[in-house]
UniProtKB/TrEMBL annotation:
This is Phosphoribosylglycinamide formyltransferase. Keywords: Purine biosynthesis, Transferase. GO terms for cellular component: cytosol. Catalyzes the transfer of a formyl group from 10-formyltetrahydrofolate to 5-phospho-ribosyl-glycinamide (GAR), producing 5-phospho-ribosyl-N-formylglycinamide (FGAR) and tetrahydrofolate. Its EC number is 2.1.2.2. It is an enzyme of class 2 (transferase). The lineage of its organism: Bacteria, Pseudomonadati, Pseudomonadota, Alphaproteobacteria, Hyphomicrobiales. HAMAP family: PurN. GO terms for biological process: 'de novo' IMP biosynthetic process. (6R)-10-formyltetrahydrofolate binds at K66, M91, R92, L93, I94, N108.
Length: 203
């Protein structure tokens, strides 16, 4: 039986689309059942609708506090009862309460080879550091930002001619390939009660 997945987005939703496409392939072990977005202007909203997915928009500005905003989201999650949650460009930190409710069931994709360059402005910092290889990481969400268990990584070369935009595009292409592979590997490992091995993909 396919595992029920809800995707969280804040922006363009391109990683969401890659997961949705993968989920429609024969034998893929996940089904995307809904999308949650915290930005009413996100381009990903229309993409979710184009894929006939229920989309729930929780504009942070409409709530008196972070706690109230998160409580509304948790109420929707309780109705769906997803097996897993995938953050795909979701730009809001969640509480320890949220994490504990879905412990080891929330995946995130980050545009660097963690543990390097946690947080924001990853490509700018990678270029400033002079790294020759960058990439992306799929990891479990933990209380400390970008510090959960690494599930899979993809590497891309950093060229002397790269700027933040060109590097971001290369990494994003790798993300689109990595996230569906990592989700599959996680499900097939986690639900068979075996430890999912860390994997490094190169595209």
């Amino acid at each position: 039986m396919k595992k029920k997945v809800i995707i969280f987005i804040s922006g363009n939703g391109s990683n969401m689309v890659s997961l949705v496409k993968a989920s429609k392939q024969t034998g893929y072990p996940a089904e995307i059942i809904a999308v949650i977005c915290d930005n009413p202007h996100a381009a990903g909203i229309e993409k979710a609708r184009d894929n006939n997915l229920p989309i729930h928009i929780f504009d942070r500005k409409s709530y008196p506090s972070k706690e109230a905003h998160e409580e509304s989201i948790l109420n929707i999650l309780a109705q769906y009862q997803p097996d897993l949650i995938c953050f795909a460009g979701y730009m809001r930190l969640i509480s320890s309460h949220f994490i504990k409710l879905y412990e080891d069931k929330i995946l995130n994709i980050h545009p660097s080879l963690l543990p390097s360059f946690k947080g924001l402005n990853t490509h700018e910092r990678a270029l400033e550091a002079g790294v020759k290889i960058s990439g992306c990481t799929v990891h479990l969400v933990a209380e400390e930002m970008d510090s959960g268990k690494i599930l899979a990584q993809a590497a891309v070369p950093v060229c002397p001619s790269d700027n933040t935009d060109s590097l971001a595009q290369k990494v994003l292409k790798a993300e689109h390939k990595l996230y569906p592979k990592a989700l599959r590997a996680f499900i097939e490992g986690y639900y068979q009660e075996t430890d999912p091995q860390q994997q490094l993909f190169s595209f």
